[in-house]
Design brief:
heterodimer; A: 570 residues; alpha+beta; 4 domains; 9-stranded mixed beta sheet; 3-stranded antiparallel beta sheet; 16 strands; 16% strand; elongated; disordered N terminus; B: 827 residues; alpha/beta; Amidase signature (AS) enzymes; 11-stranded mixed beta sheet; 11 strands; 44% helix; 7% strand
Chain lengths: 570, 827
């Protein structure tokens, strides 16, 4: 049942009895070491967001907002939308955030539920180191300041799929703050934009309610209950659905997260006036729905303002079928979550060393990597993006190049040939399908002229279908080795020229494209084994054309070859 | 004749405060001549009637509604009406009563003068169930002592209380055309006032003999009115005086605080009167009054008998785990039905066979631990796989935990035998073990060793709470030791009331895994044992690091703390005197000397100080300036955390689920309304309010600050550093001390009917924990050690030793001295 669990070493007791909340400001630069592990040195300012009481501490903290970009995306000449996102990304960890249960997507119902997840009396949460490390890494990747000390809080509400009756989150002292995401034309935006990250926090997910599987009953699946989520809250720095969509996409690449759930805050204001009342759009699960919902909401708000109806703060949902947002609840009926410091968990204390070590272990960040590979291998944006769009593909690519192959041919073989073929077959990329050594052997053989590109592709097909040998072995067995012998090819050419003197005359008469006919015929005779490049050299010299003549039908010949290749295979 | 008159008295305070009572009164009055079932009214808390046959005990108090029945119950008393009027709160007061006291065998006590209050007897008559703050008792004593016309007073309050209840019940009908109207006319208000004051009287401290008698009730009403006015005047004056002297609390924002101050102000007046009336008597009360009979003495002896462990160690064949188990089982079968200490008892055969195994191990000389083969009881909020873990709540009535708490597991590995699961206040919320779905637990003192035929009717006193069942089980020898949990004093208070050692270590010493949470930042596993040595043994076995509890100290942290503690006190030249506490400085917190403190408690405390001086300690008056704010802060934090911790009981995965479950919201509503008891619901409401966004800053955060301040207060007075907060050591500072000595409770165990029912003012009830809360808020180790018995009623009382965080060692050391000296005082 319950196995002893090693707690996060960074999880140290803060004060002897629960946490104490002091309103002291901590300069963000003050390092808090764990050299005195039991000693609480400073507290971060604690102010409630709803703050009825005065909070001088908050004023003491300098506002670090950078300059605000000039207005953009003005609608009807006067309306500017203001958009902020809250993104909940699932932490892909082996266990849940506060228990040892496995965190597996789509496991059979209620199979990964421990006593802690089911909120049995007397059980206590135990923070998982893995989750913390992952969250810290994400924070660092978003260039956020990771606090040496953060804490957990309880957010209360009653719902059957929330076993504890509260969600453990980080309300008062989040893990990290003040990060940013930079979007550039490379990301598909027409300009560069920096979106601030307000804060990043760890929290628990809920279980799933399955309504009306049996009429009138609600069934519960607690597999997801207690799994780790990372909530990322952006500053209201976005002005259009496009910006929001690209930001979500970018985050997805960064987190390598599958599903993310977004809440979007949208407001519209007239230029030169303060921000308008914002509406929160809940539970948008795809980039498309995020963008559509934002557009619909902007439209609604502007229409409302233009008909002189003020917008009131409220929570709304988005109905994809009608393309409209609808009201869920007003501000007045918003639940009071009664946030309270989690007394079962001491403060989370991270030493500078630990944070530094995690920083070191960060993989290369997407933007940096993109810049590097484009520079180093002379790739286009699209090629770079495609490479980075698949997990481990950059590493795959680089390992091939590192063996001394031409980057140009490798990228072509990787992206167009391999990935294209995989996509057709509906297989997702993995270095294991065709390993780097196999693909490398093809690229090498083709580059060396040992086999033609066409043969190479046939070999690749075989490999994708499960042949685990290298190209050499396959070519050997199939007898596909290219006829690289100059004399042999010359003989073939002579033969062909002798058989079609009328074509030679036409070529000499200016119809250079007929060269393609000869190449095609020879390729057909040799079953594609002749080297077309060498062939065209020989043919050109035979018919007395200069070697730099470009003949159009070469492409046509290629297509022919390709078709033939397909037939050959079958 | 008295009855009509008493019934004429409206009790506006009742009506105002507890409309339920109105209903009850009305219901009862509809059939005034018949006995109602024992469990009617607020007493229905007693799910299992303790004494099913009895119609005269307090539990069944609403039963006797006619004078006939009550006189039958009492036998010897001729005028039941008199009894009714006599709202004597004290058993020892029985000493005054002549005739009726024979049965109980208690010695009559010298009649005290009762000059002032003589006439107020019936005024108070209707207030039988009002729980008065102990605060109020002193005054009462003074007054009641003087009201001496208590002829034929029965010594058993329970009986009297029956009569009271009867009065109360009979009130409206019995009085022809009297002022039974419940309207709050001015006159009625005045009466109400007098009643309130009167209630003070009647509610007098259990330890004080109070006799409030009256005959011509109407006349008394007039007198009472006059008196009320006079008292009002006094009150105002005294309040003025009191306020002048009192240091204004720095922090005044909270509602509780206001109420507390109100109580305190009242307390000053009462103290004033009390002192006036008792000036002479107070100081040497302890010497003079010796109400414990021979029978009682034996009782004391048996309760404080040396632990089985010592006997086991001595190798005596006559004391082995087997014989110990036999004794325990005998005690359980004999007394548990009266005490209700254990709710679930383990299988006798299992206990016996385990005891046999343990005995064999002892004989081989290979016991698993010093505790091998002893029987341990566990409070109901410890999860165990073998018995239910109900927390004494209907919500978890059939809850069978699928795992075992760490503390329990450690004891089991040490060879301890599970005796049973002990009663408690629902989820630990309460101070008298009366808020329990499993029924009230009675204090074994006064019951154990009673002749069997009297068991049913023996006086019911509170065992304290919330670990009342655990304390009662240990005190009555049903088990060697018991585990309890201490949130605001839940181990120490019952230990004091029941005369056992209650130890609460520093927060974080013992894993809370498997302990059902009440207020997580305060909950501490505690022990209840007969001796300090036993406490230390049990504590050492369960004080281990546990990765399952993130708030439990790791070994590394323990080592770190130990570094701060090793700086041992210098025993100077006095070392050679062989005094155990030479060089130790003991602090006496001045703020604990509150107005509400009963004289007998005060004198006991004084004796304790002297005893420690005797043992070589230097006594230093010290100050914990914010003591007064502790109760308010505690209530705020504890209820807030409780409301959060109890959110999980929705009846979906385990526990009670309402049958009315159509919609989501109504499912929660019904399930939680049905499953939680009154006190739990009250605290959930309070806590929910405290956490709402509008009041979080004003309540929760301020309470946290107070908590922090109190912690600092303690750090300032302790010589040893608090390794958690990083306070500076002050070993050389003569003003800083190694341990504190303080009272545990304001009085001895109150009578059950004083703490039972709807009429209890919760704010007053929360005052029970006033001395234990500061140490809980600061997370400090604290121990309640039995130290003699109350001068007036002979019930045990404890003194509290508080140490610096992590300094359990010093607490044990001082505790042992207190224990030893206390033995001397008992004799």
């Amino acid at each position: 049942m319950m196995h002893p669990r090693i707690p996060h070493p960074a999880l140290r007791r803060s004060l002897l009895a629960g946490r104490t909340l002091l309103t002291l400001t901590r300069p963000a630069t003050t390092p808090i070491h764990s050299a005195v592990p039991l000693c609480l040195i400073r507290f971060r300012a604690l102010t409630t967001t709803t703050g009825t009481g005065t909070a001088p501490a908050a004023e003491a903290t300098p506002d670090v907002r950078e300059w605000s970009p000039p207005p953009r995306h003005i609608i009807n000449g006067r309306w500017q939308p203001i958009i902020g996102l809250e993104i909940h990304a699932q932490l892909k960890t082996t266990t849940k955030l506060f228990s040892d249960s496995k965190n597996i997507y789509n496991a059979p119902i209620n199979t990964n539920v421990s006593l802690i997840d089911a909120a049995y009396p007397g059980t206590l949460p135990q923070l998982s180191k893995e989750c913390v490390d992952l969250a810290v890494k994400t924070s660092l990747a978003l260039d956020a300041h990771v606090y040496p000390m953060s804490s957990f809080d309880r957010k209360h509400y009653f719902y059957p799929d929330l076993p504890h009756g509260y969600q453990i989150t980080q309300h008062y002292e989040p893990l990290a703050q003040n990060g940013k995401i930079v979007m550039t034309p490379l990301d598909g935006l027409d300009y560069s934009l920096t979106v601030g990250i307000e804060q990043l926090q760890l929290e628990q997910d809920t279980g799933k309610s399955l309504h009306d599987v049996y009429p009138g009953l609600t069934l519960l699946d607690l597999n997801r209950a207690g799994t780790g989520l990372m909530e990322i809250v952006t500053k209201p720095d976005m002005r259009s659905s496009q910006e929001a969509g690209i930001l979500v996409k970018k985050l997805q690449t960064l987190l390598r997260a599958g599903s993310m759930r977004c809440d979007v805050n949208v407001s519209v204001h007239e230029l030169g006036t303060p921000f308008g009342a914002r509406c929160e759009l809940k539970n948008l699960n795809s980039i498309k729905s995020v963008m559509d919902a934002i557009d619909a909401e902007i439209k609604r708000q502007i229409a409302s303002y233009e008909s002189n109806t003020p917008i009131v703060q409220e929570t709304r949902g988005y109905d994809a079928s009608t393309g409209k947002t609808f009201r869920i609840r007003s501000k007045e009926s918003a639940p009071d979550y009664r946030y309270m410091p989690e007394p079962d968990l001491p403060r989370l204390i991270l030493t500078q060393e630990e944070i530094h070590a995690l920083q070191q272990s960060l993989p290369e960040l997407p933007d940096a990597r993109r810049g590097r590979i484009m520079e180093k291998y002379q790739l286009s944006v699209i090629e770079a993006r495609t490479l980075m769009g698949e997990q481990d593909m950059v590493e795959y690519f680089e390992s091939l190049v590192s063996t001394g192959l031409q980057a140009k041919s490798v990228i072509s073989w990787t992206i167009h040939e391999l990935l294209g073929r995989l996509n057709v077959r509906g297989i997702s990329f993995s270095p294991k399908v065709v390993n780097a050594q196999q693909l490398g052997s093809i690229v090498e053989s083709v580059d060396k002229g040992q086999i033609s590109a066409k043969i190479g592709k046939s070999v690749l097909d075989l490999m994708i279908d499960g042949d685990a040998r290298t190209a050499d072995a396959i070519v050997q067995e199939k007898g596909w080795k290219q006829m690289g012998n100059h004399a042999e090819l010359e003989a073939l050419c002579d033969d062909m020229i002798a058989r079609h003197p009328e074509h030679v005359a036409k070529i000499q008469g200016g119809n250079v494209n007929l060269l393609g006919f000869f190449i095609g015929q020879i390729m057909k005779d040799t079953k594609g084994r002749a080297n077309p490049v060498v062939l065209s050299e020989i043919l050109k010299s035979k018919v007395g054309l200069p070697s730099d003549v470009v003949f159009k039908a070469e492409d046509g010949a290629r297509t022919t070859k390709k078709k033939k290749g397909g037939r050959d295979k079958s | 004749m008295k009855r009509p008159s008493t019934s004429a008295l409206p009790s506006p305070k009742f009506r105002k405060q507890a409309p339920v009572d109105d209903y009850k009164v009305a219901a009862a009055s509809s059939k005034p001549k018949t006995s109602t079932p024992a469990s009617s009214g607020p007493k229905s808390i007693l799910r299992k009637p303790l004494r099913p046959e009895s119609s005269s005990t307090h539990a069944a108090s609403s039963t006797a509604s006619t004078s006939a029945s009550s006189s039958k119950a009492k036998g010897s008393i001729s005028g039941a009406a008199i009894l009714k009027a006599n709202t004597q709160a004290n058993s020892t007061a029985g000493s005054k009563g002549s005739a009726a006291s024979g049965a109980s065998g208690r010695k009559p006590k010298g009649v005290l003068k009762q000059p002032v209050m003589a006439s107020r007897g019936d005024v108070t008559g209707g207030m039988g169930k009002k729980r008065r703050a102990k605060v109020e008792r002193e005054e009462v004593n003074s007054g009641d002592d003087s009201s001496s016309d208590n002829d034929g007073e029965d010594e058993r309050e329970s009986d009297q209380e029956d009569d009271e209840d009867e009065d109360e019940d009979g009130m409206p009908t019995a009085t022809p055309g009297k002022k039974t109207s419940k309207k709050h006319t001015e006159e009625n208000m005045a009466e109400a006032m007098s009643k309130i004051l009167g209630s003070t009287l009647r509610k007098a401290d259990a330890s004080q003999p109070i006799l409030a008698r009256s005959r011509g009730a109407e006349r008394k009403i007039e007198e009472a009115k006059i008196e009320t006015k006079a008292r009002k005047a006094i009150t105002i004056e005294k309040r003025r005086l009191a306020n002048k002297d009192r240091v204004k609390p720095e922090y005044t924002g909270m509602e509780y605080e206001k109420k507390l101050r109100k109580v305190a102000t009242r307390g000053v007046v009462q103290l004033f009167n009390a002192i006036k009336a008792q000036q002479k008597a107070t100081d040497d009360l302890t010497e003079k009054a010796r109400p414990i009979t021979t029978n009682d003495k034996d009782k004391v002896a048996s309760l404080s008998k040396a632990s089985f462990l010592d006997l086991l160690k001595s190798g005596t064949k006559s004391h082995t785990p087997v014989t110990a188990a036999a004794t325990s089982l005998e005690q359980i079968s004999k007394y548990n039905k009266y005490l209700n200490a254990f709710v679930d008892v383990a299988d006798y055969d299992v206990i016996r066979s385990q005891a046999e195994d343990a005995t064999r191990r002892w004989e081989k000389g290979q016991p698993k631990s010093p505790l091998d083969g002893t029987i341990i009881g566990y409070k109901m909020n410890f999860c165990t796989e073998e018995l239910r873990s109900t927390c004494s709540s209907s919500m978890l009535e059939n809850f069978q935990a699928p795992y075992t708490a760490t503390a329990v597991e450690l004891l089991r590995q040490a060879g301890a035998i599970t005796g049973g699961k002990a009663n408690m206040d629902e989820f630990g919320m309460g101070s008298h073990n009366v808020f329990s779905a499993a029924g009230v637990t009675r204090n074994p003192f006064g019951i154990v060793n009673c002749p069997t035929e009297e068991l049913d009717t023996a006086e019911g006193r509170s065992p304290g709470g919330s670990s009342g069942g655990s304390a009662a089980a240990v005190a009555s020898n049903m088990c060697f030791a018991a585990l309890g949990s201490d949130t605001g004093g839940s181990v120490r208070l019952p230990a004091s009331y029941c005369g056992v050692v209650g130890f609460k270590p520093s927060y974080g010493r013992i894993s809370r895994w498997g302990l059902v949470a009440y207020a997580s930042s305060l909950d501490t596993v505690g022990t209840l044992t007969k001796t300090v040595n036993d406490a230390e043994i049990v504590y050492n076995l369960i004080s281990k690091e546990d990765p399952k509890d993130s708030t439990c100290l790791t070994q590394r942290q323990r080592d770190h703390i130990a570094q701060g503690i090793t700086s041992v006190e210098q025993s100077e030249e006095s070392r050679n005197t062989g005094k155990p506490l030479s060089g130790v400085r003991i602090g006496v917190p001045q703020e604990f000397n509150i107005e509400e403190l009963s004289p007998s408690t005060k004198s006991l405390w004084r004796k304790g100080i002297l005893a420690l001086k005797d043992a070589g300690a230097t006594v230093v008056p010290i100050s914990i300036p914010n003591t007064r704010l502790a109760v308010g802060a505690y209530l705020t934090l504890a209820t807030a955390e409780a409301s959060s911790n109890l959110q999980r009981y929705d009846g979906i995965r385990y526990g009670h689920q309402s049958d009315e479950k159509d919609e989501k919201d109504s499912l929660y509503y019904h399930t939680r309304s049905e499953g939680f008891g009154k006190e739990v619901r009250r605290r959930i409401l309070l806590g929910t309010y405290v956490l709402t966004s509008g009041s979080f800053d004003n309540f929760f955060l301020r309470a946290q600050k107070i908590r922090q301040t109190i912690r600092k207060d303690f750090d300032n007075v302790f010589a040893r550093p608090n390794m958690i907060t990083g306070s500076l050591p002050g070993e050389d500072d003569p003003e800083r001390v190694h341990a504190l000595l303080a009272p545990v409770a304001v009085t001895t165990a109150p009578k059950l009917e004083d703490v039972l029912g709807d009429h209890i003012d919760p704010i007053n009830a929360y005052m029970d924990d006033i001395f234990t809360i500061p140490a809980s808020l600061a997370g400090l180790p604290a121990m309640s050690v039995p130290f003699g018995n109350c001068a007036n009623d002979g019930f045990p009382m404890g003194l509290q030793v508080i140490g610096q965080y992590g300094d359990e060692e010093m607490v044990f050391k001082v505790g042992r001295v207190v224990e030893e000296k206390g033995q001397a005082y008992r004799r």
